[in-house]
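Researcher: Next entry in the queue.
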Amino acid sequence: MKQHKIDLLISFFLYGVGLLSLLVSDLYISKNFDDFFIADWAFIKSSILIISTVCLMGYDTLFIRDQSLIKRYFKRFWGQTIIIAFLVSIIIWLVKGFSINQVIMLFFAIVGLAFLNYISSSSRACYNLWKAQFSINFWKIILLLLLLLSYFDQPINYYVVSVLIGGVLSFFLRGYYPKERNIQDKDSLLSLRDANKMGAYFLLTNLTLVFAVNGEQFVINLYGDANVSAHLFTYFSVFTPIALSINGFLGFYFGPKVRRQKEFNLKHYFNFSKKILVFSILITIFSVIAGYFYMIKFMNVAKVEIDWALISVLAFLCIVRGIYISTSIGLGIFGSKRSIGKSALMFWVFTIVYIFSIFIMLAYLENEFVVLGIATASLLNWIGRFSVSNYFTIKELKTINENV
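Model: Structure for this entry, 404 residues:
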């Protein structure tokens, strides 16, 4: 028990320092560079985070269910990661007009972060929490140090060097090897065929999730509107990170913990959700207050210039993303293939409507309305995700309880 508490404290420390480093990096970029550099930074960041998630093909969630997949899936992971990173890099080169050097750097950044995601999700499934956090957060600390040293002149260079250094160090921690006693009996192992089907469903779900988190910057920059990108990026960086980062750690911690519980019924689920909701409201209020004082004191923004309508939408967004944690954990652990597939399909409907609405607003609305409109579309997308995952989680828990 004592060792578990130490591991938890270390993992929370690494999580906090990593997210703080990424937050400071974003705030530093927002304050010290022009709109075009900010837009490039936001595009590179969103591209790497989205595509590296795709490379795992949903297996990061399956590792919690069956740790034997960590070894069985490894070779295939490398093959598909290289193919996906190559194709995406070529597409971005054609669309954005990056130089060959930038495209090569983007390829290695995607592959490197995908590898870190693999190690982190494997370590998390093995309940090596601090090693999981090291794998997914240490590169962010390196990123901040390189940025403060002004070591490079292109955003992509900062990311690729940070990710590759983090990947090398994380590999030698070896927290991703499952212990034999934690692997299920052979009869209860997921077959690769079933794992591929469930992984595809989880991939669809996870892909819509990363688009919900980072998609607006990806789409805005593909469209080429640097001013909208910079304004939205600045407000997200200032007013939401405290709430979203702490809620994110709760999701990271409670996922394996709920999985290890001998009993988790509807009553447990509702109590868990209520606690998450109350905490999310409180931490969002704190996050907004902290963001307000930062913008006034350090960014020298006049009170009359602060966009309170946008802040209000982002605050509700933080609360919804907070309560979504309980539904996501419930569906990820207890969901059947049928429920996961149906929810993934509905998530995609929301995501397509969301992305399409962004393009429409960028094409037809004035800049002052576009930012608020995109933030509102993001909020509605998250409300839809929460409603669907909550519905299927309750449905699955009812079925499980009836069969007990």
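Model: The radius of gyration is 21 Å.
Researcher: Noted, moving on.
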